[in-house]
Amino acid sequence: MKTHSVCFPILATLALSAAVTIANVSNNNAPRGVSPSNAKLYVPDNVNNWSCLDGSKTIPFSAVNDDYCDCIDGSDEPGTSACGTGQFYCANIGHTPSNIKTSRVNDGVCDEECCDGSDEYDGQTQCPNVCEEVGATAREENDRIQSVQNEGARLRRGFIKHGKANKVLLTNELETLRSQVDHVQLALNDARDAANEAQEAYLEGSKSEREATRKQQLEPLIQEQTKRLKYASEVRDMLKLTLQSLKENHNKNFHDMAVKGTVSGFDDYIVAQGEKTETVEDDLATLSSDRQFDALMDETSVVLRDIGTLHDLLDGMKRDYNTEYNDEAVLAAVKVTDDFEITWDSSRLDFADVEHLVLPEELPVDSPEAEKFRDAMDSAQEVFNDASGKESKVQEGIRDIERKLNMDFGPDETFAQLVDNCFDFKDTEYTYSVCLFGDANQNSHSSTHLGKFSGWEGDNYDVQMYTGGAKCWNGPERSVKLVMSCGTTTEIVSVTEPEKCEYLFKLQTPAVCPIPEGEVDEQEHQQEQQQVEEGEEHTRKHDEL
Amino acid sequence: MFNRPRMHRSRPPLPGSASRRTVLWPFVISLTVVLMVSAVKQEDFKTCAQSGFCTRNRAYAELASGTPDWESPFRLDPTSLQLEDGVLTGDLIHAPTSSSSSAESGGALNAGYTIEVHLLDSDAVRVRMNERDPKRRRYDGLQKSVLVKPLVSSTQYDQLGRDEDGLFTINYGSRRQNSARIRFAPFQIEFLADGVSTLVLNEGGLLKIEAAQVWSDVADTRTRTPMERRLEQGMWSERFKDIIDTKPRGPESFGLDITFPDIEDVYGIPEHASSLSLKTTRGPGAQYNEPYRLYNLDVFEYEIDSPMALYGSIPFMLGHSKDKTAGVFWMNAAETWIDIEKIESTSGSSRRTTRTHWYSEAGVLDLFVFLGPTHRDIFKQYSSLVGTTALPQSFSIGYHQCRWNYISQKDVIEVDAGFETHEIPYDVLWLDIEHTNGKRYFTWDPKQFPDPFDMQLHLANKGRKMVTIIDPHIKMDRGYHISKEATDKSLFVMNNHLKPFDGWCWPGSSQWIDFENPRAKDWWASQFSYDRYKGSTNTLFTWNDMNEPSVFTGPEITLPKDAMHYNRVEHRSIHNIYGAMFHAATAQGLSTRNETLQRPFVLSRAFFAGSQRYGSVWTGDNKASWEHFEVAAPMLLTIGLAGLPFSGADVGGFFGDPEPELLTRWYQAGAFYPFFRAHAHLDSKRREPWLFGEPYTSQIRAAIRTRYSLLPFWYTLFQEASMDGVPIIRPMFFEFPSDEATYRMEDQFMVGEALLVKPVTTAGATQSEVYFAGNEKWFEFYDGQVKQGPGVQSVSSPAYKIPVYQRAGTIVPKRETPRRSSKEMENDPFTLVVALDSKGEAYGRLYLDDGESYEYSRGDYILREFKVQGSVLTSRSLNRQESETEWSFIRRYSSLKVERIVFQGLSEPVSRVVIDGRPTVVESWHDVAGKQHVVIVSRANLSIGQDWSVSLS
């Protein structure tokens, strides 16, 4: 008992001092704002000096955290804002420790990153310690994210499985289709030849008959058009003559710019005329009635254009020529122009409008003889259509599979599951849609194309670009950046337009949920195994066919 | 913001041609279409020849210069003169002489006019001329909006009477140093300072006052010479493009020549994208064909180096030469043009004389003459009339981040987070028109900004503010409370038929508040109360754009001149002040929305003389080009010289996409604009400071941090400007007024007296030619390298910095801790950077207050003077009141510390530094190349609010 009574205080003191020592190590030894792992960097040397961490300067250890910045790198003030460039450590017990910039120490703001409030200690601002609360919320949130990620990863494994299997499937299917190409091509060629032959037989067999009827039908139109062309040609020649005469006879000493302009315009016209390779038409009479009529129409419109050009030249001069010169050649040309303007209008009316000379439909005039040819032709056509349908189906199938096989679905084929899947997002004004690897659109009463899939951005397979959409007024072509995040369903969660005509779609999808490391290999291995089996099975099936 | 290109602007088909063309063929029409595509923006705005009164007054000037021995037809009736209580009055008679008789045929002149000359207590002189008995009352209501207080007549003058030359002279000023010498016939007033002729009115005989008349007065106009036709052009109506100005009052313009004898350089009359020293517009070799125009307009992608009118107008001009300086304020808010001509001196001086010719479309001739004697005195005199800059909210001199548009609350939070991540300080995030519910101002888009309180709080937690745009066009919509109330209270501008005017602007069909109506201002201000402006908080401030006003469907994209304001005032008479009245009403709204008055912050695009009392302005819709960047400096210097110091240009350029180098260089220069904001157009790429990556992010961060480190210096300059009316950024000549080499220098400028800044406005340039004025040293701001003036030297300007130098003889206060916002720097210690001159002296000041209230006006502020003399730095108080302890700001902040003092330019090594009696260890070194010694006193630990001394020996 006695011994005890002596010993006890000593023991107690020892225990106490031990406790204090421990406390010193964990708290007091590291200057304010220094993390435990960096505490060893803040130890004075044997003369109680200390060197800036960049080695640039040596200062008394007492100058550490004295609220005056000595070191260029700011390392002497980890616990004050004097340098503002260093890191301040918040222990955040109950949550996760963090580092904030020392410029945020004692700046009057309770920084979120520093939930323990240790960043504001100068008494100007009271920051409560909210780490327990924040920590709990964060843990909850972490749990939620974790469960989304777990579920997402499970779904993604399904995507990967599907993607890999699908690739094998498509490869096989492509092979099958390719093997059919020659066959359907051949059938198509045969059917085409047969159809052509039947058509020729029909045309040949009924030619004279049809031509005669058509000729009768078009006769009055051709006559009318010939008349018009003649009249127009005369008018054109008259205008040309007028200009030619103006060119030769106007008084060049006046240097009337309006006249000069017209004459040089006329010269240009003549040069342009010369450059035009005259299309020497076959003798009209040898042509079919339809081609005869077309040729006349073409010729007329050329002449009318000429009249327009020539009149423009004359009219330009008429408006601006100097009336004081009284140049007779000019006055004559003006007179012609005036007359032309008065008469041309009314004579055009006589013409009736060219547009109204509508070509009548060919009438079905088949004789019983021709009827037979026509039936043969129709059935050959049917065979051809059928063959053509088969051929294009095979070709389309090949194209479609090739497109899919050429697409970059990520290293593990995750995105094959989503190809051509479409998603909508309803805004107040618009509904936005994207078909993955296809097109993005903005729809209201009408649809605006926002872009076509043009590739992945970066190497992470989580950002897609859709480019080359409809051009904005006074701006670029519209485009979409589609950013993906992990979720248990695939859907668009927001659409914004951060810059004019550059849209940002946010899509959540299991396809980007992280798959825990290590698991991938195993999974892949299993899947590969499976795919090989499936593939083999598929091939076998095909062989059996 | 600019006018979205307007569909309705395509040219209509020419009448008459259409029917004939149908004869021809469709291809003819396609040619015409091609011709219509190229649109020239200049076409939207009038040239002098398209403006009736400009043509008439310019023709009169031509007539005068083309007439040998031209004499003004105006004479003063000697018997009518009376000088009483500082006001001279008299009758002015229009009596055509033979030389001027042909001009009389204009028929628009009245015989009887009055003249008043007011000698004011500020040593300024006001000269007014008016019709004695006008047929129609001229608008004379401008002073209520422009002048800051009723004018007081001077008692300090002597009347000398007529001398042997028949001149009537009055000496005035405290020393009677100024004289006004009046000649009767032809009428002329010459102002002399200390006996030297400094400014002359009507020396060129161009005085012309058209009688405001009624239609029946019009003389027979059948036979007219071309000159006569020009003298009468557009008197009764005038068409521009498709819009007719009906001019129901007929002609009422007036003009006068103002001559600056032997003064070659004149400055001011903003706003133009032009040079600092104004160019000539008349006479042989004139640099511009058109006169400078003052008419507030919304100009789409304005042209550089042009006298075309822009968004704001201040009819104030300063003339300056080595030995004299004079100012004139032409108080008129109607459209005004100014011709500038340089003519040979008549006094035999080698310097030329500048003759200016001013003409306004309506109102009365009312001008003020300031004779200094120094240019600083002129600013004191001018600002005593129109007011000095209001001391701003201190946050507003920090950095502002703007874009058309941050599209949602989420966007705002993300941009804010970007600044956090990249550790770039900023104070204000701005929301352009898209934040509203369908361009109805005072509302929020409910979907994109569902919780404006929360958004503002998120920023306010870090000491940051927000600004929303509030424009003067009000969407026509009975369901919109502003539109309904203003309609019910008849507060909208009317058209010329006295029906509500409606025009087109952002919201579509819109109306404009009539601020000429005395009830409009208070009503508008009341809209800013927190219960009316839902979702606003005390950290939300305002941006007034489009207040020229911009009217997409109006003539020259503004209100028609014959639109009607309250009391039948034509818009013509008050056009140039409309934007400032709107600005004033908004500022009132912000300052009165709290229980105690708080300082407003309102940015405006349009401005007039006096706008400095309401807030800041910017140079409008500039472009992301090196040329627009370069012209920003002379534009801002000019606006400052016109009494409006709080101005900036959009950093980066509003239209287009700046390359990263341009953006960075612009930030480096913009950090030295009084108003420092980056802004970008809707069609441009995002360009927040971190988006171009390194090295640009670091360079921009450094530029913005430089601004923040100098905030104490800037705030002190604002306080000085609020007292003396001086500019904050100053042309070189302002600080070196007798150095003629600086008179046309506009590519470098001074911030206050202390800092020299040279923007780097050439791509790829890493060397800059800097002019070091004076015979003293200049210390590089970042590394302390010394340059010796005077002369041009090539200095390095690498990508990460532009040349900034501290002038010897100054002390610059700084705060060096890099914080998130200005608010968070409130408790930080100061660094004083002392640059000693060759006498070993230096001087500087520091002003501090709470940055938001008006308590300073009662004495709650800290104003210190720092002075080095005889190797001792002292700090003493310049506070006016003594009872400092009763003030809460002083009590709270006077113990803030000066932690560091840097002495540069010491001629001898320092062995001992004693602070208030206690010796201190310091760092010091000898800068051999700079021929100086440098000492850094660290841990000075001196209280900012107390007197102390630091002696070096």
Automatic annotation (TrEMBL), chain A:
The lineage of its organism: Eukaryota, Fungi, Fungi incertae sedis, Mucoromycota, Mortierellomycotina. Pfam families: PRKCSH-like (PF12999), PRKCSH_1 (PF13015). Keywords: Coiled coil, Disulfide bond, Endoplasmic reticulum, Signal. The keyword Signal applies. This is Glucosidase 2 subunit beta. Residues 1-19 form the signal peptide. SUPFAM superfamilies: Mannose 6-phosphate receptor domain. Residues 131-201 form a coiled coil. The keyword Endoplasmic reticulum applies. It comes from the Eukaryota. Residues 516-545 are annotated as: Disordered. InterPro entries: Gtb1-like, Man6P_isomerase_rcpt-bd_dom_sf, MRH_dom, PRKCSH, PRKCSH_N. Residues 420-515 form the MRH domain.
TrEMBL record, chain B:
This is Glucosidase II subunit alpha. Belongs to the glycosyl hydrolase 31 family. One of its GO terms (cellular component) is glucosidase II complex. SUPFAM superfamilies: (Trans)glycosidases (SSF51445), Galactose mutarotase-like (SSF74650), Glycosyl hydrolase domain (SSF51011). Pathway: Glycan metabolism; N-glycan metabolism. Its main location: endoplasmic reticulum. One of its GO terms (biological process) is carbohydrate metabolic process. One of its GO terms (molecular function) is carbohydrate binding. It is found in: Endoplasmic reticulum. It comes from the Eukaryota. Residues 390-717 form the Glycoside hydrolase family 31 TIM barrel domain. The keyword Secreted does not apply. Residues 725-812 form the Glycosyl hydrolase family 31 C-terminal domain. Keywords: Endoplasmic reticulum, Glycoprotein, Glycosidase, Hydrolase, Signal. InterPro entries: Gal_mutarotase_sf_dom, GH, Glyco_hydro_31_C, Glyco_hydro_31_N_dom, Glyco_hydro_31_TIM, Glyco_hydro_b. Residues 114-339 form the Glycoside hydrolase family 31 N-terminal domain. The keyword Glycoprotein applies. CDD domains: GH31_GANC_GANAB_alpha, GH31_N. Residues 1-39 form the signal peptide. It comes from Linnemannia gamsii.
